[in-house]
Design brief:
15 helices; 2 domains; about 0% strand; two-stranded parallel sheet; 2 strands; Serine Threonine Protein Phosphatase 5, Tetratricopeptide repeat; mainly alpha; globular
Amino acid sequence: MDPARRSVLSAGLFSVAVTVPGWPDVVGRMEAAQTGITRRVGTAEVDMVVAMTERVSELDDQFGGRHARPMAAAFLVNTVAPYLRADATEHVRKAMMSAASDLCYLTGYMAVDEGVHGLAQRYYLKALELAGASEDHLTYCTTLRGMSVQAVDLRHGKVAMRLADAAAAASPQAGPRMRAFLAGQQAHAAAQIGERRAALAHLRGAEHAMERAESRGRVFGSYDPASLSYHTSQVRFELGDTHGAVAAMQESDRQRYGIYRRTRVKERTILAERQLAVGHLEAACETWHAALDDYPMVQSGRVDARIAGMCGHIRPYLKNQAARGLYERARVVAPAVVAV
């Protein structure tokens, strides 16, 4: 079955008026996951859904969501949805809903990457519902935080702040790495709406939480120093410190794990734009070249938009040899997104 033909999660526009359920409103509730279908599922099916989600996440990190999202959506519709309607023990049913929640969150995240924001919101809301039904506090908070990231990237700062605060409020027992994960997003959202004192306070909170988390050992794939440096750069930029934003983004780039190719390309384009903003044209061109090195292996709407934007940024400088060389290379490497 083609998930694109399903009407339940149709594409649409980002809505700042979307109703986000609070944790008490979703705990233990999931009307759509009723038993009664003849099939019965167990822990093996739960493990398979978890493993599939992890693999799709790895593909998304390496190659972007354009190819991985349809795979995830088809798996969700054709396999996971029937599992949610199948007979199972209470323990297995909760575990399956938790696994489905994580997959919905990931699919929503990939929809954001493609710029299909209304569809992403629908996946996110379904992830919240499933997380509540399975009492999966971690995925519930992670999804709220993801919705805040979507809003802040679209410049809906007040909505982003509300969602980031809701995520933090819903996780009072979070460990230090999760607190850093949430506080970093609160800092970015606060900075975007001009709440300087709050932004810096949240950023300090994220830094202190990260120090405690790193002392316990790094967890691969979770919020890490590179992510914190990225948030530091975003906060500094929103508060008008472009030089500080450049330095923090360079630190993030040095710290970033090699497998996160899509994130690396996106953040290098952001770094280059800020280098250009402070008058460092040659440095910006060098950073954009580094982004183009990985670009052919990434299928991402957000990355496409940033490469297209790169050409707009450098077009006024084409008499410069470095800018001209970058532009000519971009026309070869990314002909579909570069306007001639």
